Amino acid sequence: MTRIALGLVVVLALGLAGCRSASGPTSVQLEPGQYARAFDEAKDLLLVRQFTLERVDARAGVITTRPKATAGLATPWDTEQSSLRQEFEDVMNQQERRVRVVFAPPGGDPVPEGEGEAGTDRRASSEPLEARFEVTLLRVSVPGTRIESSAIQMSTRSDDPLLRRRGVGGRDRIAIASDDALAARLAQALQERLGAAPLADANP
User: At residue 87, does pLDDT exceed 50?
Assistant: First the structure.
């Protein structure tokens, strides 16, 4: 029965991964005057996908989310994964995704993390813009945890008094990759909401 159940889970995951798979541009080109609507649609798009908004700065043209945890196959209601491989990676590791949307002139330089372009007010802009989606994949580690490969429930955790006195501990997040597949799916979803043409991908 266990093997049958596992097989059904894998088949379901394959179907879901196939539906979610996406490749293509991670930006959407906006026409002059379309910014206000695009900004609101991008916010709603992230909220619908259960992301918690951290920064919503319409003046600078930046939206960021807090890291969102997922457990891949163990949380089939999540939609962050774009492939079966990601489903398994997320179930085997503690991983989170953080989304950043930047509204900037097409082809411009990357906007530094935590900033918008100095002196700009996107709300007053009359020039074409693009909505750029950036998704960072984070891996969470807990210092002192020893993972038991044969049985995950038998994993143990040690306590280092020296680290505790120094205030070191808890959960560490390490950025391990950019999830361009999810960024592309988010861009596609915004494009569909706006009826806008996708921006040609500069990095195929």
Answer: yes
